[in-house]
Structure formats: structure tokens, C-alpha cells
Amino acid sequence: MYIYKTKIKLYHTDAANLIFYSNLFNLAYECYEEFLENSDFSVLKIINEGKILMPVVHAEADYIKPMRLGDKIEIQLSLFSSGKSSYRLDYNFYNENKEKVAFAKTAHVVISIDNYRPVKIPEKLLNSLKTLKIK
Questions:
Q1: Could you read off the pLDDT of 51-97 as tens digits, one per residue?
Q2: What is the per-residue pLDDT for 31?
Q3: pLDDT band per the 50, 70, 90 thresholds, residue 45
Q4: 106 exposure class (CB count in 10 Å sphere: 0-12, 13-18, 19+)
Q5: How far is CA 26 from CA 19, 33, 111, 120, in A?
């Protein structure tokens, strides 16, 4: 599991001072990107090498409790499953009181930048993802 701590900022919220629904995915992606950066498999490195892409092919979320401006949030990222060329990540969002406030999941497919067809998950990436597996 990887833990990412952040705070709900003004631009995350709507006129009702609640997190705007799509911004939950922005926060999830920030967590994922920081995990990759800390795993020495950064998004920038992937783009610069120009061999693979890892697009999100499915995403969904459940909003359990309100998240408002100034709330401190902890996101727990974990690997739910992985296959030959795809993987699914789970994101559990908790507030300062350790209450679960949201849940998101994303499914990714590793594809060749040349033909956009699925390819095997690179070993280095797979090893990094396996560190997210909850035992």
C-alpha cells in the first residue's frame, strides 16, 4: 500500500463547498503519479522513453461522506489485481478522523506507443505495482 496525504483546496470544490465529483479522480491520479515517481518509474520517464502508455480504461468512484475545503485527506493506494497487460488500482480516501470518505478504482492497460495494442507490463513496473498489494 502507498499512502498519499493532501488537503482539499478551493479549486477542488463546487459552489456548495463540496469536492466536485471529477476532482476525486484528479486526487487519485496525483496519488498514483507520486507513487510512480517514488518507484523510479515516473510518468515523465515513461513519456520520454516513448515505448509504452498506460491509459485508464475504466474508472469509478463512490462518495461516502462530504469532503470540504481545508479537509486533510489520506489516500491509500493499493493494487487490486494485475494481469499480463493490465492492472487495477484501488484508492481509499480517509479524513482526519480516519473515517472513509470515498473510494475509487481505476483499470489501466499497458499499450505500445507504436500501434496502441496491449503489451506485457514491464517487469520494473510490475515489481513496483506488487509493492501495493495488500497481503
A1: 999 999 999 999 999 999 999 999 999 999 999 999 999 999 999 99
A2: 97
A3: confident
A4: buried
A5: 11, 10, 22, 26
- Cα 49 from Cα 39, distance rounded (Å): 16
CATH code given to domain 2-130: 3.10.129.10
Q: What is the spatial distance between Cα 75 and Cα 102, in angstroms, rounded to a whole number?
A: 9
Angle (nearest 5°) at CA 20 between 35 and 31 = 5
Radius of gyration of the chain (CA): 16
